[in-house]
């Protein structure tokens, strides 16, 4: 893969844009993409987090946190019009292993809002407009051997949702939320990982091509607890997922893995914020995406903040994109702010490369047909990340999905 | 017996100000079991010939023909040519991140042989071929050519030659970038394959030093896009002593 733009370092930010190659340039090789580097004005959101949608002005697209998102394709989630007509329908099916409880509760339930408040207008809209919240509880010291399953199937219209996953101290759980179907959805998901608990949270966006989905996934990681967040986005017209991590006490660790595959015209956006405000915590982010087709657009923004109090922090974030055809666009912005020097390590890397004609030629020159060559490269690109998920059932499903994307589109 | 016949081959590339002709009528016949050295100055079109035979999309054949046992090679896609038995060891092998050498080799062998090699035999075959080329077994788990040194890339090309057993092997400057030990080991690999008598070898090189290890049956001097003189191994000695000066004084491909 020819790297169009790579950056590694500690505090830089870069935006990488891969445009169509120049006219008459039949042989794609290194350097056929355009690269631009911009410094975000402020990686942190300027409006204070709030439950109240009215605390946030309607975004115009010029704001740092909205500048990549096609607002006109959000079906009014950002300007109140969607909320005025929230008559959408979805079917939610729960798979609950023994010992796990699920309740529908009102907004005054005191288990809501513990992980963190909405940080943007759409998340606040979701909070202001949901009818009932789903609270899933894994009791103290309960070690699950099977995943908790939340299957959300959208049947059209606008839905607002709130989900709390409460993993009590020393419990261990895998929770998989799988989104299929269609519609417009804004949601908040709260992940409470109790002291010494272990949560693997998998969010799969396998929507129909026309769906719109914006979600804030806010995690609070307890003392010596560990969170593994896996965000997988294949389907939808506009999908914007915003995982956030804060630490309640020292010793917490968070692995945030993401995998996306953007086809022609799709906008898939992943924004992460990890707020290290507590000493001796660890975070590790790996997001990988493939893009193919005209106007496929992937946005990845990774903000990691190491505050003055967070000595002993160890963090690394890494985004890689593989552009399979001309006409796709990637914006990848790692951003690290460090307020203390007393850390174990901090770094980031971002690379966007193309599957180019030279690689294709090399593989074909060894007898491998073009389609198989492309598959070989894409599978290889994702394989290592998929292995790190550590849940066999999910891994197999993901590999199948990647195969299906390749069958359908390459 | 496999035969590659190149007749009056003309090839252009797309340059800034329109197509530019690089090959200007190449005639050459390579038979199984023979080794031909193609020697010529920089820019004379040696790589162009090699890549055109393999079907690289950058090169456009404007006239002439290439037949492998009577089959029109120019009608075949790149992968069809490889499966028909044409192998190109590249001057600059390409990095393919994310794809391990072992996965790559097995996929290629499966494609070329028409069926997946039996796993246990295959593992042994690869191990032995790597050992013969003095390659660390750890290379099998690395990504194709990623971070390989120049010499490691060339060994990896010859490893593929040994495993894919083509009818016609085109080796483009396999000697460049090799130190003396590597040159000897890589040459031994080429000779091992050639000694089967089943491959016709087209050894493309700028320098004569590899000819200390590989004895060509024929030597062709390439200049300005065509073969300007052909002879036996003794022609290489002449080039060793006199260089290419007498062939290029009329100007190169300009
Ligand atoms: N895209 C291009 N536009 C213009 N000229 C080109 C292009 N590609 C190749 N050439 C020219 O074609 C000629 C032949 O190149 P080629 O690589 O075949 O030479 P070579 O004999 O292999 O040289 P070397 O010994 O340096 O490997 C050179 O003059 C080169 O500059
Ligand atoms: Mg050359």
From TrEMBL, chain A:
Region (Disordered): 1-43
GO biological process: iron-sulfur cluster assembly
Signal peptide segment: none
Ranges of biased composition (kind: Polar residues): 1-14
Top-rank taxon: Bacteria
One matching Pfam family: SUFBD_core
Domain called SUF system FeS cluster assembly SufBD core: residue spans: 155-381
Annotated PANTHER family: PROTEIN ABCI7, CHLOROPLASTIC (PTHR43575:SF1)
Family to which the UniProt record says this protein belongs: Belongs to the iron-sulfur cluster assembly SufBD family.
The protein, known as: Fe-S cluster assembly protein SufD
UniProtKB/TrEMBL annotation, chain B:
Keywords recorded for this protein, A-Z: ATP-binding, Nucleotide-binding
Transferase listed as a keyword: no
InterPro entries with a match to the protein in the record: AAA+_ATPase (IPR003593), ABC_transporter-like_ATP-bd (IPR003439), FeS-cluster_ATPase_SufC (IPR010230), P-loop_NTPase (IPR027417)
Domain of life: Bacteria
Pfam families: ABC_tran (PF00005)
Domain annotation ABC transporter: ranges: 4-249
MF-aspect GO terms: ATP binding; ATP hydrolysis activity
Similarity annotation: Belongs to the ABC transporter superfamily. Ycf16 family.
Name of the protein: ABC transporter ATP-binding protein
Source organism of the structure: Kitasatospora indigofera
